[in-house]
Write a structure and sequence with these properties.
seven-stranded mixed sheet
Length: 192
């Protein structure tokens, strides 16, 4: 993917996060239908680029009483929006907020069971490095769910994302094409 590391997409501003938390969004991006089949009780789940907490809230329910969600974002302002949304829609005591930078997730030592990157790989400063860090943060057998908007990410760039993860040791479980989005579910080899 030649151009992704050189171009820098606009980062979703906090002012737009509340729009993304609109209940109408469930009609076309329903977390229960999209994510719940891949997230089990007791999981440690990463919501990378958590924004306003739309998926964080649902993940906090899916992981159960002994699970945890680490909501990762590079904009601190997103955390207050997310905390409010999760307080109203999720289970806030199961969520930990983690500030990262555009080129470093700062997740050293984390071994998550599930990682979500929803509409955000294209926003990172170095997509290859980001994907490598997600791979490293997943435990053996961990699931990576990635979705990107067709309007911002051409098919060849999305295919590059999948190929990059496969080269690192992920196996593609499924890919899908939905209305405005392309997605994939991948699993990390259970062998070290």
């Amino acid at each position: 993917m030649a151009d992704i590391d050189e171009r820098r997409a606009d980062i979703c501003p906090p002012s737009f996060a509340k729009v993304l938390n609109n209940p109408i969004r469930r009609l076309f991006q329903n977390p229960d239908k999209l994510l719940q089949p891949y997230v089990k009780e007791d999981f440690l789940a990463l919501d990378i680029g958590c924004g306003g907490g739309y998926f964080t809230a649902s993940l906090s329910k899916f992981v159960g009483a002994k699970g945890k969600v680490i909501a990762v974002d590079m904009q601190e302002e997103m955390f207050s929006i997310s905390r409010d949304f999760v307080r109203r829609k999720g289970v806030p005591e199961r969520v930990e907020y983690h500030l990262c930078s555009a080129i470093d997730l700062k997740l050293d030592g984390i071994q998550a069971d599930f990682a979500l990157a929803f509409y955000m790989v294209h926003e990172g400063g170095d997509a290859e490095r980001l994907l490598h860090q997600i791979f490293e943060a997943l435990a053996p057998g961990g699931i990576f769910f990635v979705m990107e908007p067709k309007a911002h990410v051409p098919l060849k760039d999305f295919e590059w994302t999948i190929q990059t993860m496969e080269n690192l040791g992920m196996k593609t479980v499924t890919t899908f094409d939905r209305l405005m989005s392309r997605g994939a579910v991948m699993e990390k080899s259970s062998k070290k």
